[in-house]
């Protein structure tokens, strides 16, 4: 996966249609999520599409997330969110304002409200997971 800053640089120069394609391509690059992990427990509530996020312990105290969606654009959005937090320590994730980190992408203006309505819920789930991991450390 590219870095968030690399994606942002490319995103800024694209027209709206190409931005959609970039998000779809990001979603295609997500690590595959086994079907067995796509359960009610990993389903993100409040999204117009189905979105699943599964946290795992990564190297050291780092969190690694598997994610998937049944909608290409939504899958790209979760991929974008994961670029901000993937393989970082729980404390680092908690210290990151994910919404602010994604602000340069202006997703609310670029995408329909139905596409972005679940973004706060995706971010909240990641933050709640980081809180649990930080508390257990």
Characterise this structure:
- This protein has 137 residues and is α+β, with helices and mostly antiparallel strands.
- The protein has one domain: Alpha-Beta Complex (Sufe protein. Chain: A), CATH 3.90.1010.10.
- Helix content is 53%, strand content 12%.
- The protein has eight helices and three strands.
- Strands 1-2-3 form a three-stranded antiparallel sheet.
- Strand 1 and strand 2 form a beta hairpin.
- Helix 2 packs across helix 3 (72-85) and helix 3 (72-85) runs parallel beside helix 8.
- The longest helix has 18 residues, at 119-136.
- It is globular and about 45 Å long.
- 27% of the residues are buried.
Q: Report low-confidence residues grouped into runs of 5 or more.
A: none
Q: What characteristic shape results from the CA principal axes?
A: globular
Which structural category do the helix and sheet elements fall into?
alpha+beta
Spell out the helices and strands N to C: HHEEHEHHHHH
Strand order of the main beta sheet, please?
1-2-3
Helix content: 40-55%
- What is the CATH third-level topology name? Sufe protein. Chain: A
Number of helices: 8
Mean pLDDT: 90
Instruction: Give Rg in angstroms.
Output: 14 Å
Strand content: 5-15%
Largest sheet: 3 strands, antiparallel
CATH class group? Alpha Beta
Head-to-tail CA distance between termini: 28 Å
Outline of the structure:
By secondary structure, this protein is α+β, with helices and mostly antiparallel strands. It has 8 helices and 3 strands. Helix content is 53%, strand content 12%.
């Amino acid at each position: 996966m590219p870095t968030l800053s690399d994606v942002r640089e490319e995103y800024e120069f694209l027209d709206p249609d190409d931005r959609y394609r970039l998000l779809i391509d990001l979603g295609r690059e997500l690590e595959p999520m086994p079907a067995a992990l796509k359960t009610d427990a990993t389903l993100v509530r409040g999204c117009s599409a189905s979105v699943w996020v599964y946290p795992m312990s990564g190297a050291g105290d780092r969190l690694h997330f598997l994610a998937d969606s049944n909608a290409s654009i939504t899958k790209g959005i979760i991929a974008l969110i994961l670029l901000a937090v993937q393989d970082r320590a729980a404390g680092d994730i908690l210290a990151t304002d994910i919404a602010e980190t994604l602000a340069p992408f202006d997703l609310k203006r670029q995408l329909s409200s139905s596409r972005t309505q679940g973004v706060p819920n995706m971010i909240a789930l990641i933050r709640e997971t980081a809180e649990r991991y930080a508390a257990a450390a």
